[in-house]
Specification:
The protein is mainly α. It is built from eight helices and no strands.
Length: 203
């Protein structure tokens, strides 16, 4: 069985990861992904693998996961910005603090360096990084349940490649979803606490 070229070789795994988090997500999963999945459906229906209805439900579940992770990611970024302004004396310092942490989050999200390649003494920050959980959720929900081989000499399954190279498991999706929900709740609580307890006004 052939896998579509977008996920058929290891180097394309990096392109998938890049598209999942940075800006191209809507285009990648929306316009391009729809055509690819339709082609897969037609090929697999012709082979008698499954009917259209289970396929449609499976794609609907993936779409739900995509919306879920994108919604809560936007939510925690919003609440984080509010929290950063709330715990600092003014919005200028809040912007500087936010920019610093956005850069650190991007560094430890597993986007530039996958989690298994991060030195052990820095992995704790990977697990504390909200963007790492978003990346985990997006990639694992869309590709973690694909058990077709890739077109490379090793012949790894897509799900095995995600596990070995990125450390992503589809079975861990529930925990990832709970953590992604917890981040906006935490940031909203800290924002509310900061505006109630901290006073930077000078008379």
């Amino acid at each position: 069985m052939q896998v579509h070229p977008a996920r058929s070789v290891e180097c394309d795994g990096f392109d998938v990861r890049r598209g999942s988090v940075h800006g191209d997500t809507e285009l990648f999963i929306g316009s391009a992904g729809g055509g690819r999945r339709t082609n897969s459906l037609l090929q697999e229906r012709a082979a008698g693998m499954y009917s259209a209805l289970p396929y449609a439900f499976g794609q609907a579940a993936k779409f739900f996961w995509y919306l879920f992770f994108m919604y809560f990611t936007l939510l925690y970024f919003t609440f984080y910005g509010m929290m950063a302004v709330g715990i600092t004396p003014n919005h200028n310092i809040g912007s500087i603090v936010s920019a610093f942490f956005y850069a650190v989050w991007n560094l430890f999200a597993g986007f530039i360096i996958p989690r298994p390649s991060i030195p052990v003494w820095w992995r704790w920050y990977y697990w504390a990084c909200p963007v790492a959980w978003t990346l985990y959720g997006l990639v694992a929900s869309q590709f973690g349940d694909i058990h077709t081989p890739m077109e490379d000499p090793k012949g790894k399954l897509v799900s095995e490649y995600l596990r070995s190279h990125f450390g992503f498991k589809h079975s861990f999706l529930g925990v990832v979803a709970a953590v992604v929900v917890a981040f906006p709740v935490l940031f909203a609580f800290l924002f509310a606490f900061s505006i109630k307890m901290l006073n930077f006004q000078k008379r």
